Each structure stands twice: as C-alpha cells, then as structure tokens.
Amino acid sequence: METASVVERYGGQNGRSIEWDARVDKHNSLQPIGHTQRRRSNQFSLSYFKAFFMDVFLPQGYPESVTDDYMEYQMWDTIQAFASSITGALATEAVLKGAGVGDETATALAATMTWLMKDGTGMVGRIIFAWARGTQLDSDCKKWRLVADILNDTAIMIDLLAPHFRFIFTYLVCLSSLCRSIVGVAGGATRAALTQHQVKWFIQ
User: Fold this and answer.
1) How far is CA 80 from the centre of its chain?
2) Total domains in the fold of the chain
3) What is the rounded CA–CA span in Å between residue 159 and residue 88?
4) Can you give the chain as a three-state secondary structure string?
5) Which residue, 4, 51, 135, 174, could crosslink 121 as a Cys pair with Cβ 3.0–4.6 Å?
6) Residue 176 to residue 92: CA distance in whole angstroms
C-alpha cells in the first residue's frame, strides 16, 4: 500500500509527521493509516462480541432454527423472570424477618422448626403434584404455564404478608411453599414443552 508523508506546521515551526493512505475515498480526501486500522479493529471487535453473544444466549442456527415468535416470547419471559426475581428477594427478606432474623426474643430452635416445616411441605407437595398431574403438563402446557405464574405471584404475596400475621405465620409460609412446589414442577415441564414448540429443526 502506497503512503504519503504529511508534515504539520504551526506558526512556521515544524510539527509532527503523519503517514497518510495514498488512496482517496469517494469524497476525494485522504485518510490516515492509523484511522483505517482503528476502524477495522472496532468493526472486528463488534463482530466478535456479537458472535459471542449469539453463541451464548441464542439457540444454534438462530434465527432459521426457531419460529418467528421466539424472540418476542423470550423478551417478555425475561422481563417476567426479572420482575419475579426482585419480588422473590423481597419475599425472602419478609420470611426471614418473620422467622426471627433480627429479633432478639426469637430462638434458633423456633426458626429452625418453622423452616423445616416450610421446606417439608414443599417437598411433599412437589411429589404429590407430580404424581397427580404430571402426565397432563405437556398436553396442556399453556394452561399449566398460566397456573404456575398465578401460583408464583400468590406465593410471593403470602410471603410478604406473613410477617404481619404472627399467630399463623408458620401456616402461611407452609402454604406459600406448597404453591412454589407446584410452580417448580409445572413451570419446568411447560417451559420445556414451549421451547420444543418453537424449534424448527435440530442441529446434530
């Protein structure tokens, strides 16, 4: 590549020397070699990060491998999951306070028993629900996906209200844990069914 050397002068004094690309662009102006290299480097960096993002977060062969509604569904599902995570964190804080965290009069034994009853109810509920409705989740995934979302919001609301009803606090957190156990089974099964529905073809 041919280059031309240009010397900048300030007030009659010699300035710095710059190498310019001898080729002219469509506006008949010269461009410095360094500027051209930086532009190509920036384009390479953007292409690399775009390819990395698509490889990590999008399915293989996107967008040809999925249906047209895939991106819209994922966008709203991501917003819903983000909102659920925020409210879930607030609900966990409320349950911890209700269990005695930060209360000097609360005992560790009482908090442990409450937590064991809460988790135990969830485990039993998960097993019973999977036994009773497990075969219906794939065939009617839209219905159970909606049920899972409603129960998840219900569980969060119960957790937020539970500390204000100390006399039935244990029963309330057990009920919210039961709702979440159904959410875990129904939500996981329906998500898999919906994902398979959006697949056009598989990459071996």
Assistant:
1) 9
2) 2
3) 9
4) CCEEEEEEEECCEEEEEEEEEEEECCCCCEEEHHHHHHHHHHHHHHHHHHHHHHHHHCCCCCCCCECCCHHHHHHHHHHHHHHHHHHHHHHHHHHHHHHCCCCCCCCHHHHHHHHHHHHHHHHHHHHHHHHHHHHHCCCCHHHHHHHHHHHHHHHHHHHHHHHHCHHHHHHHHHHHHHHHHHHHHHHHHHHHHHHHHCECCCCC
5) 174
6) 11
pTM beyond 0.90: no
Looking at this protein, which amino acid is placed at residue 158?
Answer: I
Structure tokens given for 13: 């004094």
Which residue bears the tokens 């057990």? 174
- Token look-up 């965290």 returns 101
> Is residue 204 one of the residues assigned to a domain?
no
Confirm whether 203 is domain-assigned: no
The conformational region for residue 73 under phi > 0 = left, psi -120 to 50 = alpha, else beta, is alpha
Q: Are residues 128 and 153 in the same domain?
A: yes
37-93, pLDDT tens digit by residue? 556 666 667 777 777 777 777 777 777 778 888 888 888 888 988 998 899 999 999
The backbone torsions φ and ψ at residue 67, rounded to the nearest 5 degrees and listed phi first, read -75, 170
Q: For the CA atoms of 154, 160, 166, 167, what is the dihedral angle to 10 degrees? A: -10
Rounded Cα distance, 8 and 1, in Å: 22
In sequence order, which residues have a C-beta less than 8 Å from that of residue 74 and are 6 or more positions away?
none
Q: Residue 25's Cα: distance from chain center in Å?
A: 45
